[in-house]
Design goal:
Helix 10 links the parallel strand 12 and strand 13. The chain contains 11 helices and 14 strands. It folds into 2 domains: 150 residues, Rhodanese-like domain (Oxidized Rhodanese, domain 1); 145 residues, 3-Layer(aba) Sandwich (Oxidized Rhodanese, domain 1). The strands form 4 sheets. A 5-stranded parallel beta sheet has the order 1-7-6-2-5. By secondary structure, the protein is of the alpha/beta class. Helix 4 packs across helix 10. Helix content is 27%, strand content 17%.
Length: 308
């Protein structure tokens, strides 16, 4: 079975026509961010999955199942062994086509699963454009039945060109041919007192700000966190911009195809959404900084910038 093309997205109509294909596994990775005492907290939304999901989809928790419990950095991606065990339990083998979705306005946890599978060498993965919101808006069916997939064998083959480390980011500070992109809301990028996803306010020195929602609507590039959260509480459906509009969005801040790119955010979710946009544009030298602001801000030896 082959998806319609090599792009990282699939459309709802295509998925509806292939729901019963035995070589495809849909993965619902619904996830929420909440704030307590000014600090961001990641949480899986399995309850949402159980209340109704795309027929045949299995659930994976990006926090419970696919974050490394041994890491000092919250939400860092699972080790190869842990990742392989979870994929095998979900019935995802080396030749399975995976379609990931969530119910955010633009994919966050679904984009992160797409990135994680790509990093572990599994090219047969796509993200549902518009996600569950679009599926529901189109009146397509939901199910409460929880599948019991047959165990599969998943072989992780890490691809370093998908992952940036803190050392890579430090090196990039002195490399003008590398662009660093902060994918968070502008009030977090410009924060001067506190930051919900880290120990210090501000952003990585030299980073430009392209909030992940701007990849669907450039008008949302200036939307603060509170406005974004109000948007998430609605049923508005957004999809990625056409590639010519995406290209203009990135070119406007100097992120051009001749440069390598490192995307980051708070904990690697919004950055995965931004990375997906870059891959849509054909940026082959684009990577995700998995440690993101959670790791960077905890190290006083690395520089940060903030609006004065």
């Amino acid at each position: 079975m082959h998806p319609p093309d090599s792009a990282p997205l699939v459309q709802t109509a295509w998925l509806a026509d292939h729901l019963d294909h035995p070589d495809m596994r849909m993965v619902d990775v619904r996830w929420r961010a909440r704030y307590e005492a000014g600090r961001g907290i990641s949480a899986d939304d399995e309850a949402g999955y159980l209340a109704g999901h795309i027929p045949g989809a299995v659930f994976a928790g990006m926090v419970r199942d696919l974050a490394d419990p041994q890491s000092q950095v919250p939400d860092r991606i699972a080790s190869p062994a842990q990742f392989a065990q979870v994929m095998g339990r979900l019935g995802i083998g080396d030749n399975t086509l995976v379609v990931a979705y969530d119910d955010m306005v633009l994919p966050l946890s679904a984009a992160r699963l797409w990135w994680a599978l790509s990093y572990y060498g599994h090219a047969r993965v796509r993200v549902l454009d518009g996600g569950l919101r679009r599926w529901r808006a189109e009146g397509r069916p939901l199910s409460t039945e929880v599948p019991e997939p047959t165990l599969a064998t998943f072989t992780p083959q890490p691809k370093p060109d998908w992952l940036a480390t803190k050392a890579d980011v430090v090196a990039a500070l002195d490399q003008p041919d590398v662009a660093i992109v902060d994918c968070l809301a502008p009030d977090q990028y410009h924060s001067t007192e506190t930051h919900p996803w880290g120990d210090r306010p501000g952003h990585i020195l030299t980073a430009v700000n392209i909030p992940y929602l701007a990849n669907a609507d450039p008008a949302l590039a200036t939307a603060p966190t509170a406005e974004r959260d109000r948007l998430l509480a609605t049923e508005r459906v957004l999809t990625y911009l056409p590639t010519d509009e995406l290209a203009a969005l990135y070119a406007a801040v100097g992120v051009t195809p001749d440069r390598a790119v490192i995307a980051y955010c708070g904990r690697g979710f919004a950055a995965a959404s931004g990375l997906l946009a870059l891959k849509l544009l054909g940026y082959e030298r684009a990577r995700l900084y998995d440690g993101s602001w959670a790791e960077w801000s905890a190290d006083p030896s690395v520089p940060v910038a903030a609006r004065q």
